[in-house]
Design a protein that fits this description.
The chain has 175 residues and is α+β, with helices and mostly antiparallel strands. The chain contains 6 helices and 8 strands. β6 (143-148) and β7 (152-157) form a beta hairpin. The relative contact order is 0.20.
Length: 175
């Protein structure tokens, strides 16, 4: 029984969102790169320029508030947060939209969007393990905000080999 629990815990930890090593030089470099992403993001064609710029500004503000917060399964604060709670907080503070607490429920919201049609503020979902899901908020230029298991709240690229292989679907919540 203990062996099974250890195996299941190992599988979960390999596939989900994660904690941060906040003081490393790598993380400081990543933070500078993440900040630059918002400045370099292109405005999506489907949203009007003003709306997209507003969405991106709101997401930028929330990202800077949460940036580096460590991952904690079930966490819901600056002491530790998981991916679905982060998305829930971002949507409530940025857009005054209440989303469900879990990734399982969040994926049932909005409408399906093809990966090639992603817009700023769309939710991106990943299958990171057997029955394990991950969610983030798209910010343009194939980048998304999420709570990483190893680095805390960061931005990552959909083109990253890991995320590219785990990509599942996207949902549009905002019209």
């Amino acid at each position: 029984m203990i062996r099974l629990s250890i195996i299941l815990l190992s599988i979960f930890l390999m596939g989900g969102c994660s904690t941060s090593s906040k003081n490393s030089a790598v993380d400081q470099t990543l933070s500078k790169e993440n900040s630059a992403l918002f400045k370099n993001s292109t405005v999506q064609q489907s949203l009007n320029k003003e709306q997209s710029t507003l969405f991106l500004a709101q997401l930028h503000k929330e990202f800077h508030y949460w940036q580096g917060t460590p991952y904690r399964f079930g966490g819901n604060s600056k002491k530790g947060i998981d991916c679905s709670a982060l998305v829930q907080h971002i949507y409530l503070k940025s857009f005054n939209v209440k989303l469900p607490r879990t990734t399982e429920k969040q994926v049932q919201e909005g409408f399906l969007v093809h990966k090639s049609q992603l817009q700023v503020a769309d939710l991106v979902f990943f299958k990171t393990g057997w029955n394990i899901r991950h969610v983030g908020v798209y910010i343009g230029n194939n980048k998304f905000i999420h709570a990483s298991y190893s680095k805390g709240v960061i931005t990552s690229s959909l083109d990253n080999v890991y995320w590219k292989s785990k990509y599942w679907q996207a949902k549009r919540i905002l019209d």
